[in-house]
Amino acid sequence: MSTLTVRKPNLDLSSGFPRHWMGGDVYRTAFMNALSMSFPLGEQMFIDSVRAAPPEAILDPLLRADVKDFVGQEASHRFMHQQFNAELARQGFDYTLEPRMKWKVERIRRLPVQDRLAITCALEHYTAMLADYVLRHPEWLQGAEPRLRTLWSWHAAEELEHKAVAFDVYRAAGGGYWKRAIWYLHVSLAFWLDTNWQTVHNLRRDRAVWRPGTWTSAARAWFGWRGMAWSLMTPGLGYLSPRFHPWRHDNRALLRTWLESNEDSVRAIGRTRA
Ligand SMILES: [Fe+2]
Ligand SMILES: [Fe+2]
After folding, report:
1. Residues 6+ apart with CB under 8 A from 44
2. Which of 32, 43, 45, 254 could share a disulfide with 135, CB 3.0–4.6 Å?
3. What's the average model confidence in pLDDT over 128-133?
4. CA–CA separation, 6 vs 73, rounded Å?
5. pLDDT for residue 270
6. 261 is in which domain, residue-wise?
7. How far is the C-alpha of 4 from the C-alpha of 162, rounded, in Å?
8. Taking Cα atoms as reference points, which of 130, 131, 127, 112 lies closest to residue 170?
9. Do the beta carbons of residue 9 and residue 265 sit within 8 Å?
10. 25 phi and psi, to 5 degrees?
């Protein structure tokens, strides 16, 4: 059996949600919205990259089953975030980076498969770090609209669950250290520039760029007590170790705890037989 379970959250976002759904916090809402806007294109790129790996390279039947369920999980994340983003569009928030991202994804598609996988591994490391933060610090989503708290924590739980799949495929496809490290540095720069650019764009739509409260909230979110910057620093650098593997940091207990306390929020669809 695959080590992953494909699940669907019991959520209906068709009635919309409040504009500042992160407990009224304008900065944190803008940041999370920026992440969500990047997911549909990004997660499709992850799916296409692992699918591009030559099947003869993936000899382990368990990894093959994991790849199938990785695709299933990312596809349902895409679907839910498309609904979330549709509501953002109704609220007047546009994904200003979309044409640039489409161009980037097209360029990535033309790269050799190991490079595509190295880019996917780097971005999956970012999603895994953010997921660990969200589940380890429930106060981050404390004031969030309840359905959206479920959406984000379900996504975080599954990002933890499948965090090593792209990495294992990269290694099975013969990917080595330097390619992985160089792409990580490149992806890190692009990820932070793009996410911050879109966040500021979202704040501009809210006429909140020049409000001091916006930036005190940002400073608290990143550099305050239990701020995100402190939590991302060590694992962020850890990726550059030649001995890095996503499961060297075993945070499966976080996933188990979340699943146990959210049984009613998600429906298991299935698991692929190895
Ligand atoms: Fe995802
Ligand atoms: Fe993922």
Report:
1. 74, 78, 105
2. 254
3. 97
4. 5
5. 83
6. 6-270
7. 7
8. 112
9. yes
10. -85, 110
